[in-house]
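Hi everyone,

Forwarding the result from last night's run.
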Amino acid sequence: MSVTVLLEVQATPETIEELKTTLVVILPDTRAYEGCEGVKVVENQDDSLNLILQEKWQSRPHYEKYLAWRDETGALAALGAMLSQPPSIRYYDDLDI
């Protein structure tokens, strides 16, 4: 069963453009990663430093494997340095209602 992952990040005013540029560069690899069914980035209308990555994965283990890979490559640390607080990751199941 697919899982929806919401990754919420809060950039600093000094790093928001760098963060967006970095996402443009790294998201093609994310979208090509085994188990990824899609990624969409949305920006908060009331706080332009607040972004949410809406991700669809084949399963939570697929996402967790991907996240471990990003950690091993140093990408998570690089992204974390652009944030004003730790990111929030939430996992959701689709309901047939």
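The chain has a mean pLDDT of 96.

Cheers,
N.
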